[in-house]
Design goal:
alpha/beta, three-stranded parallel beta sheet, flat, 228 residues, three-stranded mixed beta sheet, WH_DNA-bd_sf
Length: 228
């Protein structure tokens, strides 16, 4: 999510469906150069061409096919978040002042979309924002009421009186590797391919991997992911 906005994801999903820049431009009521620029940004972010033109049609690469499900899941979660099925109830006291913390790692495009959706849905409220990090200090700010809510990535400091909601989640996979010429036990159990963000401090996978790290055969290979 750090570099991919939901608008880019929407263009990607439409390209998977129509396989044509002109058709996607017509569907979004946009211009072909705008769609081409979005595709160029997606290629830059993912490091993959994503689509190859054959006989006038854009054919998705293997990497694009793998990303499609994740992109659709993110868009579905996002649509549900900013357009809840039930109408919002009238608040007893309008003109509220709401203090919100945002983790910088979420990325400016997503933060902008969150604030835009909240301002549209609650036009009488005033939103105050500040940068925060998913640590014990944030937990204290939420517990004391200094912050009303916060949008962060993988926080593990949650006080008992703070409600935690996972509003956008994508699958994580641990891949065990058996290398040519290796034994099943020595290779497959201790050699792992990790996504970049799962090697960062505070990742939910670190506790599991740390228990294996002292073993002589343990080895990590880190690969970039959609989010980095």
């Amino acid at each position: 999510m750090r570099h991919v906005s939901t608008k880019l994801l929407h263009v990607f999903v439409l390209l998977m469906e129509y396989r044509d820049l002109n058709a996607v431009a017509a569907c979004t009521q946009g211009r072909v150069p705008t769609i081409a620029y979005s595709l160029a940004r997606l290629r830059e972010i993912t490091g993959d061409p994503l689509f190859i033109k054959r006989n006038g049609t854009l054919e998705p690469t293997a990497h694009a096919l793998r990303l499609e499900q994740t992109a659709r899941q993110i868009l579905s979660k996002w649509a549900h978040l900013i357009r809840p099925p039930a109408p919002a109830t009238e608040e007893a006291s309008p003109h509220r002042r709401i203090s919100i913390g945002f983790s910088p790692s979420i990325g400016d495009p997503v933060i902008t979309e969150i604030l835009t959706a909240m301002c549209e849905q609650f036009p009488d409220d005033r939103f105050m924002t500040r940068p925060v990090f998913a640590d014990a200090a944030l937990a204290a700010q939420l517990s004391s009421g200094e912050l009303d809510c916060a949008f962060v990535v993988d926080s593990h400091f949650v006080p008992e009186d703070v409600a935690l909601h996972n509003i956008m989640a994508t699958p994580r996979r641990l891949v065990s590797v058996t290398r040519p010429g290796g034994h099943d036990d020595a290779g497959g159990r201790h050699e792992w391919i990790l996504l970049q963000e799962d090697t960062e401090p505070g990742s939910p996978l670190q506790g599991f991997l740390n228990r294996l790290a002292h073993e002589p055969a343990y080895r990590e290979t880190v690969v970039p992911s959609w989010h980095t």
